[in-house]
Amino acid sequence: RCVLKELESLGKALYGAKLIAQRFQVRNCSHHKDPVSGSVCLLSMIEEGNPHHYFIATQDQDLANKVKKKAGVPLLFIIQNTMVLDKPSPKSLAFVQKLQMNQLVPEHQKESIVQLKEKEGLAKQEGEKRRKRKRAGGPNPLSCLKKKKKTTQEGQEPSAEKKKRRKRKRNR
């Protein structure tokens, strides 16, 4: 409501923006009796961790910088007639990482879980079969040339080692 009041007070120059803003659902803010500027109103609505999961769409750099300082508030802006979702701010990333660390199981609880599993006989046994990893093999033997036999000095006398073959006689 405060944004609509601000657009009305700025006059005919922003009449088109006022019509566009009226098309969207109007959220009630805490200062409807004495309206404040639009940026102050938007910042007050995302206080305390953005409970209603609002997105902030703005071209105002001051408002964008203030929104980036708050964790968990997505920021939209327009570049050449295209709406762009800004990457998460460092504050948001740090907040998410802190939440993830708090959700992990503490070490003393992990140790007690392992002890209870051993007590119940559910722990992994050392003698379990493990799958062997496939190692990189050599080249395909069918695609390689055969090795050449080494010739020795004794092997150079072909007539001595050759067997005599019988010649077949033809009957005519």
TrEMBL record:
GO terms for cellular component: small-subunit processome. Its main location: nucleus. GO terms for biological process: rRNA processing. The keyword NAD does not apply. Keywords: Nucleus, Ribosome biogenesis, rRNA processing. Involved in rRNA-processing and ribosome biogenesis. Belongs to the UTP23/FCF1 family. UTP23 subfamily. This is UTP23 protein. It comes from Grus americana (Whooping crane).
